[in-house]
Amino acid sequence: MTRDGYVARWRDREYDATPDGEQVRIYQPDPGEGFTEVRTGRHVRVVPVAEVDELAYVRTTCSWKGEPFIVLAEHDGWLRVEYTGGRAPIAEALGLEAFDFGVYQGWAPANEVTDLREQRA
């Protein structure tokens, strides 16, 4: 599983999270005390940021064809990747799409990706 977003540690458990000023919205797939269903398989609870033990941004990184990427999503054996090497000629040679100025993305076969790991900030 690849992650790209906030996580919060609250009451000795880690949740997907969204910071919102003095509060943090935490999410879990199952119903729970104090959690409200926002859609099937997604339940939210708002907690004060002061009660959160850790709030971090988690990003999954990898290498593909020897170049550095972040992983944005995965689907059916493919990874949606964004090039972080900062060199347009290399991005173009890899067949990546120019998503925005200086931002190149594409789909990489998951079995070609190496060095997959999570980074916390």
From TrEMBL:
It comes from the Bacteria. This is Uncharacterized protein. It comes from Asanoa iriomotensis. The lineage of its organism: Bacteria, Bacillati, Actinomycetota, Actinomycetes, Micromonosporales.
